[in-house]
Amino acid sequence: MQYHIQLFAGMAEQFGDVITMELSQETVTIADIRTRLNELYPEIASQLSGSFFTHHKKLASPDELVLPSDAIALHQSAPGMETVVSKCGLYAITYDLIDADEVTSKVHDPSHGASLTFNGTTREFTQGQRTVLLEYEAYVPMAMNTMKQIGDEIADRWPSTRTAITHRLGTVRIGETSVVIAVSAAHRDACYEASRHAIERLKQIVPIWKKEVWEDGSEWKGHQLGGWNPHNTP
Amino acid sequence: MNYHIQVFAGLAELMGKPMITVSADQETMTVSELKDLLSKYFPEAAAQLQGAFVARNQAYAAPEDLVSIHDEIAIIPPVSGG
């Protein structure tokens, strides 16, 4: 059976708009497609980091079954990427400026008496060193999964709250917003606690990395002292 | 048997590429074994590999979990979003 995979932007320029591959097994998953692509087109495979598949325009999980006639596409996490939005609409990753009001509007609920919008912005000075800009990179499909996990955790712990998160990638200039977290709840106590939980968990488990770029160098940030463990419970 | 492994951020710079292919005789191995194998191929990244986690099919895996050549595997260095 033949499967067709659509490519975009840089990869489409290099390898054409559509790749066709033959797979003989009866059931095929997105993971099988990726494995076959790795074997058949090592030169594409070498660019596959940070890439992800969509299936009928929705982010696809590795175990998702696909049929030969399905719309399968391979996207690259790179500037110009279309904003990736979760199936529920609450979580997003984008290379564009974030509209905080739009994120907040996702958690609007007439039965909620409080909403908080946390804006994470890029800082010029960190421990005396002047940053010129920041570069963000993500493992997009897993970042989407873990943002949803945080929203689910919050809904469990503070019932009848709603959470929406949008994170930005690529070059972010000083003072611009890199992440917006909106939480709404029936009462303000839960709202403040849940908002705090969301940003702390995001910094602990969501696979996004930032590089500080200075006038005379750069550095990828992360737990410099070791001991980072995403399995730790909050 | 080829294992294809995505790497990110500083680790990708250290290892020189964002997609690593390593071969082994067996079709599955534990996360710990995979990290040891990678450290052998990339001794300059050994310390960072020890501090990183492995994701199997887009979820964090434990050291004793098995990964197979059919899995989507990624090395996750300490995250720094926000």
Automatic annotation (TrEMBL), chain A:
* Organism domain of life: Bacteria
Name of the protein in its database record: Molybdopterin converting factor
Recorded source organism is: Paenibacillus jamilae
From TrEMBL, chain B:
Q: Which GO terms describe its molecular function?
A: nucleotide binding
An annotated GO cellular component of this protein is: molybdopterin adenylyltransferase complex
Keyword Nucleotide-binding found: yes
Would you kindly state one Gene Ontology biological process term found in this protein's UniProt entry? Answer: Mo-molybdopterin cofactor biosynthetic process
The family database entries (InterPro entries) matched by this protein are listed as: Beta-grasp_dom_sf (IPR012675), MOCS2A (IPR044672), Mopterin_synth/thiamin_S_b (IPR016155), ThiS/MoaD-like (IPR003749)
Protein's UniProt keywords contain Nucleotide-binding: yes
The entry's keywords: Nucleotide-binding
Superkingdom is Bacteria
Question: What PANTHER family does the entry give?
Answer: MOLYBDOPTERIN SYNTHASE SULFUR CARRIER SUBUNIT
Family membership noted in the UniProt record: Belongs to the MoaD family.
Q: What protein name does the entry list?
A: Molybdopterin synthase sulfur carrier subunit
Q: Which organism is it from?
A: Paenibacillus polymyxa (strain SC2)
